Amino acid sequence: MCGIVGYIGPREAYPIIIEGLKRLEYRGYDSAGIALFDGKDLKVCKTKGKVVDLENKLLNEISNSGSIGIGHTRWATHGVPNDVNSHPHHSNSGNLVIIHNGIIENYDSLKKELSSRGYTFKSDTDTEVLVNLIEDVKSKENVKLGKAVQIALNQVIGAYAIAVFDKTQPNEIIIARLGSPLAIGVGKDEFFIASDASPFIEYTKNAIYLEDEEMAIIRLNKDIKVRKIKDDSLVDPYVQELQINLEQIEKGGFKHFMLKEIYEQPKAINDTYRGRLLREDAIIKMSGVEDNMKKFLAADRIIIVACGTSWHAGLVAEYIFEDLARIPVEVEYASEFRYRNPIITEKDVIIAISQSGETADTLAAIKLAKSKGAFVFGVCNVVGSSIARETDAGAYTHAGPEIGVASTKAFTTQITVLTLIALRLARAKGTISSSDFRHHLLELEMIPKKVEKALESDAHIKKIADIYKDSRNCLYLGRGYNFPVALEGALKLKEISYIHAEGYPAAEMKHGPIALIDENMPIVVIATKKGHYEKVVSNIQEIKARKGKIIGIVTEGDVDVRELADHVIEVPETLEALSPLLTTIPLQLLSYHIAVSLGKNVDQPRNLAKSVTVE
Ligand code: M6R
Fold this sequence. Notes:
Number of helices: 20
Strand order of the largest sheet: 3-2-4-1-10-9-11-15
Helix content: 25-40%
Mean pLDDT: 94
CATH superfamily of the largest domain: Aminohydrolase, N-terminal nucleophile (Ntn) domain
Number of domains: 3
Radius of gyration: 25 Å
Bound molecules: 5-amino-5-deoxy-1-O-phosphono-D-mannitol
Structural class: alpha/beta
Shape: globular
Number of strands: 27
Distance between the termini: 10 Å
Strand content: 15-25%
CATH class of the largest domain: Alpha Beta
CATH architecture of the largest domain: 4-Layer Sandwich
CATH topology of the largest domain: Glutamine Phosphoribosylpyrophosphate, subunit 1, domain 1
């Protein structure tokens, strides 16, 4: 949930770390801090606020920053966001500094123990406890930093990615991970450390992704030593070639990453099905599915686990799998599933959906399902992420880096992957006719062009956004395949504009939410031609009778809703099962423009972070 960056090598460390932190700010932006060793002194600077605030604080102070350093951007867990609770944290002697992403669950008992032996603490954080535990072990056992980190971590319960530096051994940085990601960029005579590879892609394409329960001793001008934290055994690290490039993680002329990512959807969806959807041969090729076809076909049911937007994609998938492949599906919030003693058998197939591949609750749900013998299939965007590695098989979405905290292209590409899987299983089970199958492939191939068409309503949507930007509440209604889209539209509005919004199945409106409707309430209704159209039109009548303001998402050429609604936004026609890929687009743009006109920080909404690596 926080971002970690480090550097050791011949270059100046400061610019690498500051730029790296900016790229990792999507992981948290409550505070930022840096520790730099200039060959003589250790300089630590930290502040509440964003990386740019840290940069301003350091202005004129950095002349020779040295070539070793670590930096942190925080999403607060223990202790409010303020200067003192910001990372890096010092040990009591002032020799050690640490940055940490994760939670030390037993920090309170460790803190009491250390306090009883004279240690004092300035902050409210679990991290300051950890750095003092390491210092305590180091002096008690009279060992070097690497060994002290290892012994200390074996006493710790929780999740962490850490980087530790000792000014009395200033030629090395020790890093370790359990449950939070950590990558090492391997250059010529230099090493980069980061929560993901984005801070170092312009310097090296070679990366080592540390596995859980591994630590690395990274020394200047020496080889990296990777060890198991538990038993100290040496690990031969796998050096992987990175596929991402700088352009993918820059804004490319757009004002915000969110807008760029909304506009990337035609390409992202195309990248998702490219090489998998072979229309002319009328086949879908997905090795993760082919290799495990027996398990899919023998499944009593599919259980989908996910959080947030990924959970909404799972809800769309429920309709698709049941409709096309006739397999019963249950969709679970990973956070509930993992704690409610669910009934899971070896005949269950679990599909875990996660953009980041690092969401702690989803990861825990996967581990639980695996322990009961279920087969677990992952749908992730981030290649090599924890969930991608933990699952038995999977399919990447290939959406490219998603940096805006509000998920956009991840959602539509997840739906694309899940549609491909459902279609493949439907074909294998014989629950879809050959002509219907071909029709779906043809329509799916046309989706990127249709998304482009839907994006043409951008200026029109901006005008609607300007009208409703000061609303306090908003309702989103949809039926069938578009009920989850209503939920997703409401989530988008909530998270970036802080306007209260609720998504509901349109027919449920009568069971409560209708009481909220008056002339001040905007209601976004998804009313495309193929999804229970007449019934939704009746719902719109009911809203109109109560003077609600109706924004209809309709199929091109629609007449009926246009007559009733205050505004309509058209999307191209497609098959009902594919309609969420189009109806989502105006809802993303609507929330984006409302948030922008309210002056909100669209890419970094308050209190949120891109990947939730704590439960
Ligand atoms: O990385 P994941 O897909 O596992 O993340 C799940 C949620 O945290 C995420 O979708 C969140 O709800 C987004 N901010 C929504 O836009």
